[in-house]
Amino acid sequence: MNWEQFEVAFLDKYYPKSARRQKELEFVHLQQGDMSIAEYVAKFEELARFSPHAQYAPTEEWKINQFEWGLRPEIRGNIGHMELTNYSTLVHKSYIVEDNLKKVQEERQVKWQQKKESEKFGQQLKVKTPQGKGKQVQTSSSPRTKKCLKCGRDHGGECLVGKQVCYYCKQPGHMAPFCPIRQKQAEFNPNKSNTGRVFALSAKKAAGGT
To answer: Up-side HSE of residue 198: CA atoms within 13 Å toward CB?
Structure first.
């Protein structure tokens, strides 16, 4: 008689049958749940003594099946395909799988924390940097003008349509293409656009009667 059989015989003789039956049912329904592998193994082996298989089963197959059934799904899923036939090996593999799952969980936690901090930093930058700041800098040198409700064009200042004044110098008596101020500027500034030169030449011709 080995130690395990002696232990069962001892409990059978000195442990009340009602209490044994209660422990047996507890063993049959035992699941790992929130317990670690170490805690599950200790509880499993404590209750396994009350199972009739502990005394009469010729192999450890019953013990392996019961232990594997009670494991958490994520651990059982990594062990079920191994087809283990030794209880001690099954326990050892369970420790390894549990440790690997912990490492994966820790790595995910670190990545999630890094992503959260990165998003928080990005939000802080948005708060510190006023929206449209780039547009303000760009438009400071060349401010945009709104369309005039009177003439429908984009220009600054007062609309001169209908006031019979020069749109260039804002003086009466001539139109912008024949503005004397504009003609003088065109004569002293040869880099002016071709349009300015055409207006200046047209003004000279008009003055000469040609």
So the answer is: 3
Q: How far apart are CA 119 and CA 124, in angstroms?
A: 9
Task: Give the pLDDT score at 102.
Answer: 93
Residue the block writes with tokens 């013990």: 63
Say which residues have a Cβ less than 8 Å from residue 45's Cβ, sequence separation at least 6. none
Q: What angle do CA 170, 173, 179 make, to 5 degrees?
A: 60
Helix spans in 49-190 (H)? 53-56, 61-70, 73-79, 87-128, 133-141, 180-188
pLDDT of residue 37: 96
Calpha distance 188→70 (Å, rounded): 100
Q: What is the pLDDT of residue 107?
A: 92
How many Å separate Cα 153 from the centre of its chain? 47
CB atoms within 10 A of CB 4: 12
How many other CB atoms are there within 10 angstroms of residue 115's CB atom? 10
**pLDDT tens profile 122-156:** 777 777 665 555 555 454 455 566 777 777 777 77
* Residue 152 backbone class (left: φ over 0; alpha: ψ -120 to 50; beta: rest): left
- In degrees and rounded to multiples of 5, residue 52 shows phi and psi of -60, -25
pTM beyond 0.70, yes or no: no
